[in-house]
Design a protein that fits this description.
- It contains 14 helices and 12 strands.
- The relative contact order is 0.13.
- By secondary structure, the protein is an alpha/beta fold.
Length: 365
């Protein structure tokens, strides 16, 4: 299990350049004019995790299989998109299909690159896009809520429950607030997400800065970080141009290049970690002579659910999970050493999978 992250923002903020860098492809056209992305580009990339390489070395694995993440590069939205301006609502459907939104904001000055609204104001840009998404959500909900109101009046239980969730969202949207701010019980969270509201999705603000600000950020990215804190959203600073350069380098040249400009790792790594944190995702591993592999589950998942990520039969016939914490696996130089140190555990159905667990599942066929 990975996740699908939609890259959104106004035209000419660096979305397609970032997408090209992340996917190491030239699939998305990056040009200096609005709407250069006509159809959504989709890129599936490996999630870098240094722990996986260490496990593979110890287990002498023949193959290393990381977990994957999907990025969707969605065309630039403009003021009035919810009413058909620019390329209109056709792209809003693409946003509804993703798990999270990476909102790219222009945090650099460059007279050679046109800004669609003629000024550099990333916080204002964020508000413009958010407003269009809220208007589209409001329009969608107001049309859908009518039949549920009728059913709820007739006493239909499911309709009442659905109407209550819709009302929570409508109250927020009518007050100019995104649907993700709704206070929900654990039981309500799942059905609420099924409403398909764009502003209910977790948001990660991506500050696209110039090369000189890649390490420390600048006044624009600082303003975005403050906004993100107020909203409880994620925020990461990246130079799309640098990421594009890094993507074109040979693997053994990247570390030196990044070190020379004051960075410890590519922006992709930071973007993925921020995305994982945003969605509450964690990684567990399986390791052996055949392969070392990373798997992704939602934080709080129990052992049978983790087994189910590998194969549905594993979850159905789950017996137990043989588990070693990552640090214990490394310290013991593998499973045998971890056993000798008393760090090998047998966990049952109620065990909550921890980030970095090295697991082997026993199940009935």
């Amino acid at each position: 299990m990975g996740f699908k992250c939609g890259i959104v923002g106004l035209p000419n903020v660096g979305k397609s350049t970032l997408f090209n860098a992340l996917t190491q492809t030239a699939a998305a056209q990056a040009a200096n004019y609005p709407f250069c992305t006509i159809e959504p580009n989709v890129g599936d990339v490996a999630v870098p995790d240094a722990r996986l390489d260490k496990l593979a070395a110890i287990a002498k694995s023949a193959e290393i299989i990381p977990t994957r993440i999907t990025f969707v590069d969605i065309a630039g939205l403009v003021r009035g998109a919810s009413k058909g301006e620019g390329l209109g609502n056709q792209f809003l459907a693409n946003i509804r299909e993703v798990d999270a939104i990476a909102h790219v904001l222009r945090c650099f000055e460059d007279d050679d690159i046109t800004h669609v609204e003629g000024r550099i104001d990333p916080v204002g840009d964020a508000e413009t896009v958010e407003t269009e998404l809220m208007l589209a959500d409001l329009d969608s909900l107001e049309r859908r809520v009518v039949p549920f109101e009728k059913k709820a009046k007739s006493g239909e239980k499911e309709a009442k429950e659905q109407l209550a969730l819709m009302t929570k969202a409508l109250d927020l949207l009518r007050d100019g607030k995104p649907a993700r701010l709704a206070e929900l019980s654990h039981e309500e969270a799942g059905p609420y997400s099924q409403l398909g509201l764009m502003t209910a999705k977790p948001v990660l603000f991506v500050c696209n800065v110039d090369e000189g600000a890649a390490a420390q950020g600048n006044k624009y990215s600082t303003a975005v970080e403050e906004m993100a804190k107020r909203q409880g959203a994620g925020c990461v600073v990246i130079s799309a141009r640098i990421e594009e350069e890094v993507a074109q380098l040979a693997a053994d040249e990247r570390a030196d290049f990044l070190r020379d400009i004051g960075l410890e790792e590519p922006g992709l790594n930071r973007l993925i970690r921020a995305g994982y944190h945003l969605l509450g995702l964690i990684t567990f591993f399986t390791a052996g002579p055949k392969e070392a592999r990373a798997w992704t589950v939602t934080k709080g998942s129990r052992a049978p659910q983790g087994a189910g990520v590998i194969h549905t039969d594993f979850e159905k016939g789950f017996i137990r999970a043989e588990t070693i914490a990552y640090d214990d696996y490394i310290a013991g130089n593998g499973e045998a050493g971890a056993r000798d140190a008393g760090k090998f555990r047998l966990e049952g159905k109620d065990y909550v999978v921890q980030d970095g667990d090295v697991m082997h599942f026993r199940f009935n066929t």
